[in-house]
Specification:
This protein has a domain of about 70 residues: Nucleotidyltransferase, domain 5, CATH 3.30.420. Strand 2 and strand 3 form a beta hairpin. Helix 2 crosses helix 3. It contains three helices and five strands, in the order H-E-E-E-H-E-H-E. It is of the alpha/beta class.
Length: about 140
């Protein structure tokens, strides 16, 4: 039974403007308080090289080669790699009377990073601080 026949019933109305204002304030708050970190990006400055040849250092360099399979050669003589300390002894014997020869690393492009690090570590243990790498110029 409807006792209010002459009175029209008002439909409830949802006012969206205050709700949008509250959402914008929450969004601004989240943007200001959030810290952004870039873990996936590495900023690396790669060295640039020219094709000019550098004057060789005094004394005879020790050429150490490593191929893609991890086989080592010191001055074109194949050498087994047992440990870093043993390889340091091989480098020390190859140096002869030189106190600090230049170690020239000829690494294959597909050689593992670890094999190159092994050579560098062996040179450090042997007391040799001058290390260089050979590259091949590609003409385009």
């Amino acid at each position: 039974m409807n006792f209010r026949r002459g009175h029209n019933r008002e439909e409830p109305e949802i006012n969206l403007i205050p709700m949008i204002d509250v959402l914008l304030v929450i969004l601004i708050f989240l943007m200001v308080t959030t810290s952004y970190s870039n873990f996936a990006q590495l900023k690396i400055n790669l060295p640039q090289a020219t094709g000019e040849e550098v004057a060789p250092a005094a004394g005879k360099p020790i050429n150490v080669a490593v191929d893609a399979s991890g086989h080592y050669a010191v001055n074109s003589a194949r050498t087994a790699f047992n440990s870093v300390n043993d390889f340091a002894d091989v480098l020390h014997k190859s140096a002869g009377s030189q106190s600090d020869p230049t170690i020239v690393i000829d690494a294959d492009g597909k050689a593992t990073h670890q094999s190159v690090v092994n050579i560098m570590e062996a040179a450090r243990i042997a007391g040799f601080g001058r290390i260089t790498f050979t590259t091949q110029n590609h003409s385009k």
